[in-house]
Structure formats: structure tokens, C-alpha cells
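Researcher: I'm preparing a figure for a lab meeting and need a structural model of a single chain. I don't have an experimental structure, so a prediction will have to do for now. The sequence is pasted below. Please return the structure as C-alpha cells so I can convert it later.
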Amino acid sequence: MSINKEKLLLDKLQNVLQKQIKLARQGNIGDVEALVEQAGSLIERITDLGVLEISEFKNYREKLQRLYKQLCLALAAQKAEVEEELSQIRKGKKTIGVYRDNI
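Model: Understood. Here is the structure written out cell by cell.
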């Protein structure tokens, strides 16, 4: 495979990760999940070809690691937000139950 094709694979993966980060920050987790298969197939091709083992692509490896960490942080933030919302819903249901029982 030529260097240009390898670079194209890495650029595609980088773009998918950036889209996932943006979507995660917007709370569009379903759309993030929709891109998982695409990212997975790119990662599989890159791994099979050993692209990230080539010294020319060291900067890509570091950039992809940073993007992956950013994606994990964005997803963790969304998870925390959803957990807080669920907690509030549970409290609300409990309050409604108390009112219902006492009316």
C-alpha cells in the first residue's frame, strides 16, 4: 500500500473520531454509536496493515490517541449528565408516589 493510501486511512479515522467527539458533546450518543462500525473497520484495516508502526506516522498515532481520550471524556461527561437526570427523575417519581399515597 502506498503512503498516500495509508495517510488517507489515518485521515478518515481521525475525521470519524472528531465527528464522534462533536456528537458526544452535543449529546447525540445514538449518532456516535452509528459511527462505531465505520471507526472499527478503519482501525482493523490500519492495524492489519501495521500503518501506525511506520515511523512516518508517529504523529498520527499520537493525534489518534489524543482524540480517543477526548472521545472517552466526552462520553463520560454525557454519562454523568444522564445519571444526574435519572436521579432527578427517580426523586420526582418518589415524590409523586408520596403525594399519591397521602391524597
